[in-house]
Amino acid sequence: MVAFLRLALRRVAIMPVMVLGITLLVFVVLQFSPADPAYNALGDSASPPPAPPSRRRTVSTTPCS
To answer: What is the C-alpha to C-alpha distance for residues 39 and 33, in angstroms, rounded to an integer?
Structure first.
């Protein structure tokens, strides 16, 4: 019984470290992936993402004076 409790406590103690490590690993892999993960998850049927405001071409409707 004591061996079982020791094993269970050891696994519970290691669990937060393991979760943090897996989270960090997934974050790093997604940061270095060349494509947008959300776009990849949606597949070919997804519409392309809109251009950010800095890339949009702004057209003025008022003349310059």
So the answer is: 12
